[in-house]
Amino acid sequence: MSDPILSAEDVHVEFEARRGGGRARAVDGVNLDIAPGEIVALVGESGCGKTTLARTLLGLERPTSGRVLHRGTPLAYTSKALKRFRRDVQLVLQDPSGSLNPRHTVYDAVAEGLRIHGDVPNERERVADALSRAGLRPPERLFLRFPHELSGGQRQRVVIAGALVLEPNVIVADEPVASLDASVRGEILALLLRLRDELGLAALVVTHDLGLAWNIADRVAVMYLGRIVETGPVEKILTAPEHPYTQALLSVLPDAPGSPVVLQGEPPDPTRIPSGCRFHLRCPVLASGAAATAGVDGACRGEDPGVLAGGTAVQAACHYARAVSSSTGQAAAARP
């Protein structure tokens, strides 16, 4: 992989718990690299820390510890540095209706970023170009329309145009098609892929939908209870996942073979993360006795499998997966 354009380096983000005291570890040690022109899907259940990590990569949350790097340089949190950073790293939210001011025309919505950054020369031309790149042609016919006059797909394209007008090199898209009809989702995903190919844009796509990840991502990072537990190229992770959590998420997709894996209970409270593997309380491999057969049940309950490194390597934070991989590798080495 080329040098990352955006990275999280051992990032932790903690918040004061609303009830009962203590601190909630929303992000609990994450390394994540995004290369130029690469689309990374960050997937997991609601509440696993995906959005907090995305906000931290955008500079909207400051890490409790660790750091965010842009083009290899640690992010500074001065107003001037953040303003410069946000020209290059733009956010696309899941709800275009909530992202657009109902009193602003399409033109004003797209031009807003240019005006905030004092970058108004050739404003009309740049707004038109951004709308065209977002698939709204001819752009001039939309300039004076208001959000309520547009379809959901058109509104999402306007939001994307508002990000593109500043010519960023990274887009962070938080559930970019969750609020859209199924017939429109494919169009927006195709648009993101085309922007990557034409402009070299990198993207972090935050989603709970592994099907979406399959259609758009180059690489997948699976998050559980504040930590990435499996990562690798999309084909590997979505066809041969090693972590039981990833396997459970995949099992409920419509075309998945076998029966869905129903996880017991809810994710633990982030103020009281369990010892050992943070997934062990819900792990079907541990519950079935397979981990005991492999001799790792004690490790599952008592030893932290550790924080995964960044980069493109296939990694899984799972004692059982490592034991199986090790025994398979030893068996292969023993063959004549």
Automatic annotation (TrEMBL):
Gene3D superfamilies: P-loop containing nucleotide triphosphate hydrolases (3.40.50.300)
GO molecular function, one term: ATP binding
Pfam families attached to this UniProt entry: ABC_tran, oligo_HPY
Annotated keywords: ATP-binding, Nucleotide-binding, Transport
Coiled-coil zones: none
UniProt key word Signal: no
Domain ABC transporter residues, every copy: 6-250
GO terms (BP aspect): peptide transport; transmembrane transport
Family named by the database record: Belongs to the ABC transporter superfamily.
PANTHER family in the cross-refs: D,D-DIPEPTIDE TRANSPORT ATP-BINDING PROTEIN DDPF-RELATED, TRANSPORT ATP-BINDING PROTEIN
Protein's recorded name: ABC transporter ATP-binding protein
Lineage: Bacteria, Bacillati, Actinomycetota, Actinomycetes, Jiangellales
